[in-house]
């Protein structure tokens, strides 16, 4: 087998646990966005852990992990091999992983001495209630265990330790204390135990929706606590997807390709990340959440990938093999339900949603669950109908290939306009193309390439004569959310309605709070009318959140 490159761990020796200190050491190597993004996954996890230990009345000092322990569990050949038995999962993170709090019985050297100092020999500790009561003064470790739900009693192997928690691999479920949550019979994928792609197959669909509503609630509790959630009808209610399997129209399996491929390494695993830290990617030959055309094509794509890898191992071809492959479903002909799977990222996908047609390059962004889109659009149309007759234009920030504004363009009255802005040039070219494809003239719909931050000063925007008092603003940024620059201009523009669609409800809540703060120094007022979830990705932890804000008149 080839060796995988090991992440470098930055260990901080200074006193810790302050949020910034934790962020400095733990986040730098783990998040792309560094330490300042409070809505990053690692920051959220930190908040969830702090909340859990405070709920359990545990002093934060008891869960602090020493540098020595962190070093003992680094990914290296002599790192400790500790198994814990009878670990009870007591909470669930917004990433749908279980959390447990266990006595740190492995803190002392006892076990190591028993094993002649050879950690690799393996040490096992039982953390069941009886043991715990005898060890009241022990330090505690917060464990994060994938594929578990509250009420599970599990057997785990400890992995990397951080300043206030440790990662653990699930070995097996010892006992299910909460049969309401875990239903292993529901799992349809043979790769579910290891594959990082899905988190919730063992949970009923109703419970999946409840989990996602909780995530929305948590996001607003953390980032916009001033919002009166109680007063909003059905706050965070998540609308279900008509298809819960076989819905995903894009799949990107990948491989870890060694610098020099040796024949012994073949076939290379090709699939998705493994929940077991440091393990090879899970070799996925069938993905039950993907549409049929993708699963039909997957064996051919895999075969061709392995053939190329073999040819490279034999020195028959040179150059780097692509580590990520693309499979994207596309409508074969308009008006027909027939679809085909495209694999060339530059090929153009055709997608029909209701009475609209969209085309875009296969590796560009487009919503991946075709089955829920008509319902999602009907919801937006219903919200817009509230101010019918009071708006003329739709402004589409972060517009991609124009999906949202073109879909809603039927609601634009005669003389009104659609104006969109998008950073990615290929997407905006296709937005222009899609406008024409759907009968919108150059006067009806203008899509420009650029940063949304510059939208309100863009020459084409200014010359379009689109005014806020006659507009609905759609904003659908990527995970990291919007910016202060953009939000400040929104308040000057004063659209009648803001529709904020987000795949990261934490950054959405942060932005809405920010908007409220900016409003304090103005006489403009927006009311948050509703926050609604849509289950674009059944079986996974993801939720799409739609916030509707109305200008107070
Ligand atoms: C979640 S996608 C939404 C696309 C589109 N609304 C849709 O539903 O298909 C976010 C889009 O924002 C674009 N984007 C990211 N940052 C941007 C920025 N600062 N200005 C304009 N567009 C941006 C991305 O390229 C991406 O196409």
From TrEMBL:
Keyword Phosphoprotein (UniProt): no
Alphabetical list of Pfam families matching this protein: tRNA_U5-meth_tr
Entry-linked SUPFAM superfamilies: S-adenosyl-L-methionine-dependent methyltransferases
Keyword terms, alphabetized: Methyltransferase, S-adenosyl-L-methionine, Transferase
Binding-site list for S-adenosyl-L-methionine: 367, 398, 422, 476
GO MF entries: tRNA (uracil(54)-C5)-methyltransferase activity, S-adenosyl methionine-dependent
PROSITE patterns per the UniProt record, alphabetical: SAM_MT_RNA_M5U (PS51687), SAM_MT_RNA_M5U_2 (PS51622), TRMA_1 (PS01230)
GO biological process: methylation; tRNA processing
Record: active site: 503, 503 (nucleophile)
Superkingdom, taxonomy of origin: Eukaryota
InterPro entries in the record: MeTrfase_TrmA_AS (IPR030390), NA-bd_OB-fold (IPR012340), SAM-dependent_MTases_sf (IPR029063), tRNA_(uracil-5-)_MeTrfase (IPR025795), U5_MeTrfase_fam (IPR010280)
Family, per entry: Belongs to the class I-like SAM-binding methyltransferase superfamily. RNA M5U methyltransferase family.
Identification of the protein by name: TRAM domain-containing protein
The species this protein was found in: Australozyma saopauloensis
